[in-house]
Amino acid sequence: RKEVEQDPGPFNVPEGATVAFNCTYSNSASQSFFWYRQDCRKEPKLLMSVYSSGNEDGRFTAQLNRASQYISLLIRDSKLSDSATYLCAVTVKAAGNKLTFGGGTRVLVKP
Amino acid sequence: DADVTQTPRNRITKTGKRIMLECSQTKGHDRMYWYRQDPGLGLQLIYYSFDVKDINKGEISDGYSVSRQAQAKFSLSLESAIPNQTALYFCATSDFGLAGNPGELFFGEGSRLTVL
């Protein structure tokens, strides 16, 4: 089993709709959680950090469920510009705080 | 100019050739990383360095080596390239972060390597 797993998608989303997707992690000692956004053929960039139960930034909400070992990302009022691949990343402090990435979830927002 | 610069951006080479990918940064970060990305597999950590005298293996270091020439420079070498090393390679830097948590990763634009 991979340490960090994501549904690869694509999630086809009508413009203006809400989309949510999860990222599961296998190590219960995981401590820090992140969502990175990667546009096609570009480098990943940090979207949100999730240090406690959740975080909200505008139209984006990230939640952490430690009991079930997953984090989620919800995008409200989707824009065409939200089309991208969303990578989750997890760290385990005992493992030197290195980030382990999931395979990414591709989101396509359509008019 | 980009804060994290990778060269070359694209390279096609043949099996058995030695390849070096270079990374330089102007962010002043001590921590530097090399990742490879294959379709659907996310980013896999090859090597990382927390300061000039520190080099650590990541998840998939076999077939790769690195050199941290200075705080700002971290190069990745493939001593004898093979076709399954065809991938997109990213260099990244980070600071220490807050309260023991890792800092944000800042990535270069990537180096696309094709091994024939």
Structural category of chain A? mainly beta
How much helicity do the residues of chain B have? under 10%
Structure summary, number of beta strands of chain B:
11
- Give the beta-strand count of chain A: 11
Number of helices, counting only DSSP H or I runs of 4 residues or more of chain B:
0
Set down the secondary structure blueprint.
The complex is a heterodimer of chains A (111) and B (116).
Chain A (H helix, E strand, L loop, with lengths): L3 E3 L4 E4 L4 E7 L6 E7 L6 E6 L3 E4 L2 E6 L4 E6 L8 E8 L7 E3 L3 E6 L1
Parallel strand pairs in A: 2-11
Antiparallel strand pairs in A: 1-3, 3-8, 4-5, 4-9, 6-7, 7-8, 9-10, 9-11
Chain B lengths: L3 E4 L2 E4 L5 E7 L5 E7 L5 E9 L2 E4 L7 E6 L2 E6 L8 E8 L11 E2 L3 E5 L1
Parallel strand pairs in B: 2-11
Antiparallel strand pairs in B: 1-3, 3-8, 4-5, 4-9, 5-6, 7-8, 9-10, 9-11
Provide structural commentary.
- The complex is a heterodimer of chains A (about 110) and B (about 120).
- With about 110 residues, chain A is mainly β.
- In chain A, about 0% of the residues lie in helices and about 55% in strands.
- Chain A is built from no helices and 11 strands.
- Chain A has strands at about 5, 10-15, 20-25, 30-40, 45-50, 55, 60-65, 70-75, 85-90, 100, 105-110.
- In chain A, strands 2, 4, 5, 9, 10 and 11 form a 6-stranded mixed beta sheet that branches. A 5-stranded antiparallel beta sheet of chain A has the order 1-3-8-7-6, with no helix packed on it.
- In chain A, strand 9 (about 85-90) and strand 10 (about 100) form a beta hairpin.
- The radius of gyration of chain A is 13 Å and the shape is globular.
- The model of chain A has no long low-confidence stretch (mean pLDDT about 90).
- Chain B is mostly beta strands.
- Chain B contains no helices and 11 strands.
- In chain B, strands 2, 4, 5, 6, 9, 10 and 11 form a 7-stranded mixed beta sheet that branches.
- In chain B, strand 4 (about 30-35) and strand 5 form a beta hairpin.
- In chain B, about 35% of the residues are buried.
- The model of chain B has no long low-confidence stretch (mean pLDDT about 95).
- The interface of A and B includes residues 6 and 51 of A.
